[in-house]
Amino acid sequence: MMERPLTQHIVPNREPLSAEEYEKVGGYGAVRKILGGIAPQDVTRMVKDSGLRGRGGAGFPTGLKWGFVPMGDAAPRPKYLAVNGDEMEPGTFKDRVLLEGNPHLLLEGILVVSYATQLDTAFVFLRAEYKLAAARMRQAIGEAYARGWLGKNILGSGFSLDVHVHTSAGRYICGEETGMINSLEGRRAAPRAKPPFPPVVGLWGKPTVTNNVETLCCVPSIVVNGPQWFKNLSRGDDGGTKLYGVSGKVKRPGAWELPMGTTVREILEEHAGGMRDGLSLRGFLPGGASTDFLTDAHLDVKMDFASIEKAGSRLGTGTTIVLDDETCPVGLVLNLTRFFAQESCGWCTPCREGLPWLASILSDLENGQGRASDLKILEEHTRLLGPGNTYCALAPGAMEPIASALKHFREDFERHLRGKRCPWRSAG
Amino acid sequence: MATIYVDGTPHEVEEGQNLLQACLSLGYDLPYFCWHPALHSVGACRQCAVKQFKDERDARGRIVMACMTPVADGIRISIDDPEAREFRKSVIEWLMTNHPHDCPICDEGGSCHLQDMTVMTGHAHRRFRYKKRTYRNQCLGPFLNHEMNRCIQCYRCVRFYRDYAGGRDFDVLGSRNRVYFGRHEDGVLENEFSGNLAEICPTGVFTDKTLKKHYTRKWDLQWSPSICPHCAVGCNVSPGERYGSLRCVVNRYNDAVNGYVLCDRGRFGYEYVNSEKRIRGPLARGAGENAVEAVSKGTALERIRPWISEPERVVGIGSPRASLESNFALRALVGPERFVAGMSDPELRLARRAVSILRDGPAAPPSVAEIEACDAVVVLGEDLTNSAPRLALAVRQAVRRQPTEKAARFKIPAWDAAAVAYCCQNEKGPLLVATPAPDRLDDAATWTRRAAPDDVARLGFAIAHAVCSASPAPDAMSEADRSLAEEVARALKDAKRPAVLTGVSCGSEDVLRAAANLAWALRAEGKDARLSIALPECNSMGLALMDGGSLDQAIEAVENGSAQTLVVLENDLFRRMEKTKAERLLESAQHAIAIDCVENPTTARAEIVLPAAALYEASGTVVNNEGRAQRFDRCYVAEDNIQDGWRWLIDAMSAARRSEAKDWTSLDDVRAAMTEALPALAGVAQLRVEGGKIPRQPHRYSGRTAMRAHIDMSEPTPPEDADSPLAFSMEGYSGAEPPALQPFFWSPGWNSPSAVNKHQREIGGALRGGSPGIRLIEAAPSEKIVWFEEIPQAFSRRPDEWLLVPLSRIFGGEELSVLSPAVAERVAAACIAMNPKDAEALGLKAGDEAEIRLGGTEPIRQPLADMKELPEGVAGWPSGLPGVEWVEMLSWIGRKGTD
Q1: φ, ψ at B351 (rounded to 5°)
Q2: Do the Cβ atoms of A402 and A361 come closer than 8 Å?
Q3: Is B233 on the interface with A (CB under 8 A)?
Q4: Of A196, A341, A346, the CB nearest to B422
Q5: What gap in Å lies between CA B723 and CA B786, rounded to an integer?
Q6: pTM of the predicted structure, to 2 decimals
Q7: A388 touches B: beta carbon within 8 Å
Q8: Which residue of A has its CA nearest to B406?
Q9: I need a labelling partner for B97 at 20 to 30 A (CA). Which of A89, B480, B787, B815 fits?
Q10: Do B63 and A391 touch (CB under 8 A)?
């Protein structure tokens, strides 16, 4: 039986475990263990050693991030945790599984990071639409306070922690860590320039850890079973298991906890059941909407950070969007570009003005009103809206599907131009 | 210093700045939008992209934003790099996808930073073929026009309005490409510095609404270097004229004074010059009620000739809103003994006290820029936002100093504006605002204290004593005030550069003394403390430095019959004494001559009225709060028989065959005589340039040959200006003019207000020729401090009487600016303000008409306003507002009555 530290206690379509039930299956064991006498720095070291990398999309080593937080008596107080549950990446629904399925696991992870970095208050920042997740999270927090897992002097250790749920006003950019911090402060959800980095100057100017929901859910098992155990769960270089998801015209779209480094083929064919009958795979966005297309040539690539990058894309959130041969790639890219244009915060020029232009061009192309010069404008933008040119990663992310579609599906763009219509739409 | 390589060329530059600032200082044309030298960097527009290379071998490099990249020794960048150029061009292309092509009908056209930057990047061909975004504009009041379709979302406006000027009723709304800059609903922009948006905005979203009513392109206006006449800060401005009417006033950069910003009174008060109340020719008044006739210059001078031929029978009343030269010419006409400074006795006493404190004590008066650089501020007794607005704005910058320095501990440079804000959140440096009435600076204050002037002074003395025990302590302080004083003293001693700001509005010499003791106490403790004293009018300080007596002296001379003729220079006596007293003075004089630019109750009672040039039409010198003597030069020659006050006085002396002015033909002659007679004014400048006169008109000035063709086909010779090295022409000297003589800022490719970049030594620093103006007051060399020992008793209220304190009002509180229609729209309702408890005890409520009695005079009726913060026992009086009679501050008014 494969180890599933993230989802082992999640049963689909059932209420999550209560605090009491969770304790009975060994829950909060990590908290007992660390409060029982592991130094905060040692907890951080365990997480460093486990090879855990952030599951929010960027893959930053989690333990390293925790290590940036100023420690000791001279450190500014209060220190904060902002848990990123603003899961708005199109095609991504993995954090929701955890939030709705086992909120106490997340709380346990929150307790571990809070102890390791000696912080005072945690905010769980949730996507506006995650109403069920918010309700379950609030319920779990209530139970945890009642049973002494949260609040003052937890387990008599002298360590205290408060946790609040904050539901977002509903912007994709709130998922960017500094956008989330601005949003929590009541400011406009525009990202911040770095430096300063949040672990040093974050929420309300204080040291702030920002971690993704899935990342924190990995943490309790590392503490309980040790870093090596966690590393061994993986089939690649990065430790642990991963919640992989698949959407698109496959037989069984869904999310599964699998060893990090499972191949694309295994995920698509064994777990998602392969393409629906009569359809074949043309390509896929491996890590959500803001990653480059890969094609059937990449089916045997391992879904881990390094391997996917080598193949020319990003692991992102690890949730794959599949493109089949009866779906127009131009239409798909148009749909994504509209989303990104809509979600631009409006702060920097290239993103605010460039993305709507591209959406208009893609719309013309899709509707058979494109011009030959449009492809050049698209191509230029994939370069001009690259990393460093824009204020944050939103626009560069938005360029990844466009750039790779132009590479892999160039002929489809040309067909739209030549035929002055979308080949996938019936004439008339 | 650091060496940076720009396209291979090494340059030595200051560290601690960003690359954009460094490149602009080096003279490179690097386009930008969101960055502004007063607002610093946020990295939003992405326009200032350059290539940065790792080392000499790196040929690829990466694009960075110059404004967000710190200068570092050995850094290698390229502005010329093809990819960087392409990116910068693309930024303009993106901005142009939504920016309308309405330059021909846009007021910004020809002075538009966006136009300049578009040309600079070379974007000329339009590829975007979709509909442009449109917005609904807002009505923002009388000062600014709003045209959001032109917006390029650089965020400068909101950063200026909220972060820099402390405004709250303006924000950025919406997101993506629907971002909107405006108010939550239509309405007047409340902030006193809103007009700066017209210059801060790099394009035509916010434009001067008063200019729109008589619009002329920037290049078609004739400009001059001038000084704002509406308070004593002495902001440098450029008035712009066409067809004999004044069209606008814009900021004229002086790093030591106004920097990049003016207040709305200064910017929009100019229209008094075009007002119907202007006196356009000499007037003679006969015996009857309406027996006023326009007379020729010759007739007027002939009429007054016998009255002034014996100087000992004449009293001259000078004016703190007239130039030194005009006042000096009056002094020459009547003789030093019979020249009065044109201020009431208490007014003059306070002004002279201010001078002696600043000149004889160890704390020098700071420039506005020096106040901005202070890091802890105490304001005693003065509502700066309303009486010296630009100083209040400087205080708002000073309170940001300590938090910014704190950010440096996180290695955040001061120019990284957003990061500094994230580090410091809403933290502010120490600021005490101790005033009788609620103050606009309260929202920026660490501590506020509402108290009667005596108690404000006592608090000042107590802080001074807590700073330095040699400074005398007030007795019987309340526990709360004592601990407040100690807390403030601690904060001041922890600061590097504390400042004490006070003023004369509330009429209390004790407050000035307390402020002096406090500043001196800080200096005694080794702090580089500054002391600024706000005076009311543009040349109050100049008059205080002259030797004239007070108005009481004039009254005495007229009433005892020793003087028969009264010459009133640019002064409305009804704004300085009770109505009955002023009437009596003008009636008692056998002959009253008024020289002024606008009709007022004084000119209405003068036998002869001579039309004076308004400040923007005149040349001369005024001295500001700082003791900075600043020259101003006429923008245009006013039509009709209008001429400078000093010139009327020379003409009068010459008509009377008096010898005092026989050699005076130009302003410089008056100046020379003045600095010889009055050593205190010895520094006043006489500037000359070699090689032709400086043109007042831009080189593109159009229609010169046609603009008078409907009157006369032949083009008239431009008037000569004997009083300055400036010409009424587009031709002339083209070198680097002394900044005090620079009529406007322009440079090839830089047509907007940003052109000032090209005239500064370093961006945001002094102009190439230095900071205009000459300081006439320097602190005494540090000798033993002579403390003020006299401390007033605590304020005790009187039964049924109230102590009058001023409610200064930026709009309406000043005589001339209120004649501008736009300013007039902003005038607050006249009232008498009281603590509601006092009102209740009188059986009055807000809105009731109160009848106010002052010793012996007619009762004055005024609606009552509740002012919760006003101390009990004092009443607030909106001095100077239209319809509000002059009352001496700190007088007691008695009850009562209601309708």
Answers
A1: -65, -40
A2: no
A3: no
A4: A196
A5: 43
A6: 0.96
A7: yes
A8: A205
A9: A89
A10: no
